[in-house]
Design brief:
Length: 314
């Protein structure tokens, strides 16, 4: 069992109600966790990026935490936050009526591509599908409603995120799109965006909370989420293309929330089966983090097996 010994100044602030002052301080590196992450990732055939932050203790660890990686579908989180900024400003209502037309159909993941032409829907449904089912059709529609890539990128810049950008369908970013695809970010920046959401710092507290609710309903539980107890709330978004696998997760654990962003690029293993090397590493890291931050939990991850805890084969 790991015993945490908190610095006296941290205990003082926690007890005196000045928790925000603690959060404002520069995070301290968790050297034990840092070394463990390096060991876990050392044999990966590709480039790994990881950033982990424990909100209650203000401790962090990472690998290539400030390097730029492709986001794939994780770019849908910046799209989501910018649409909510538009809602907060009164440009749209959350339940704004929308009319789906077949010329919006975009393949890949998601459900709206199967809607009938001229189906009545609304913005809330589009955003829920974009996050929960990583729906590509609603994501591109939402990117348009957000004002396009430039508008989203300006909003990211206003939040202090230097490298988190939309590239696809964004004027002036055609060359960088060829390198990074739809979007790009760093592990630290993407994790910080979710922390801002959790802390109620995006648009408004109510908007932040509603975005967070959407992010707790992921359909894609096969990867990092599979190593977290199903009864523990987790907010997440997954992204994947042939040579890159990414996952953003915040776990509302009993010992304090922790967030991590796992990402890869230049993957040698570009398969799409359950035991893809990138997905295996995401499960291994998630399992390690759960055991590290919640050492007394009765629930133990099933990492290393070829089946989910439900016994469903992949």
């Amino acid at each position: 069992m790991r015993i945490y010994i908190y610095p006296l100044f941290l205990l003082f602030f926690l007890c005196s109600g000045n928790f925000n002052e603690v959060k404002a301080q520069k995070p301290e590196t968790d050297t034990e966790l840092q070394e463990a992450l390096v060991e876990l990732a050392k044999d990966f055939k590709g480039t790994v990026g990881i950033y982990v932050y424990h909100l209650a203790t203000n401790r962090e660890a990472g690998i290539n935490a400030d390097s730029v990686f492709p986001t794939a579908s994780v770019v849908k989180v910046p799209i989501l936050t910018t649409v909510f900024e538009k809602i907060e400003k009164g440009d749209y209502k959350y339940n704004e009526p929308l009319l789906y037309r077949e010329d919006r159909t975009y393949g890949g993941s998601g459900l709206m591509q199967f809607f009938k032409d001229s189906t009545n829907t609304d913005l809330r449904t589009a955003l829920a599908l974009m996050i929960g089912y990583s729906d590509n059709t609603t994501a591109l529609w939402s990117q348009e409603l957000a004002g396009g890539g430039k508008e989203i990128n300006n909003y990211m810049a206003s939040l202090g995120l230097e490298h988190t950008r939309v590239n696809s369908r964004t004027e002036g970013r055609e060359k960088i799109w060829e390198k990074f695809g739809w979007g790009q970010t760093t592990p630290r920046e993407m994790a910080s965006l979710l922390v801002k959401m959790r802390n109620g710092e995006l648009s408004s507290k109510a908007a932040s909370e509603e975005m967070y609710r959407l992010m707790t309903n992921s359909f894609y539980t096969d990867y990092a989420l599979s190593q977290i107890p199903p009864y523990i709330q987790s907010a997440s978004k997954q992204g994947m293309v042939n040579d890159s696998r990414s996952e953003l997760v915040m776990v509302n654990a009993a010992g304090g929330d922790y967030v991590f962003y796992f990402t890869t690029k230049d993957n040698e293993d570009q398969s799409w089966n359950y035991n893809n090397e990138g997905w295996k590493l995401s499960r291994e890291i998630s399992a390690y983090l759960w055991n590290y931050f919640e050492p007394d939990s009765d629930w133990k991850p099933a990492v290393g097996t070829e089946e989910l805890t439900t016994g469903m084969p992949y």
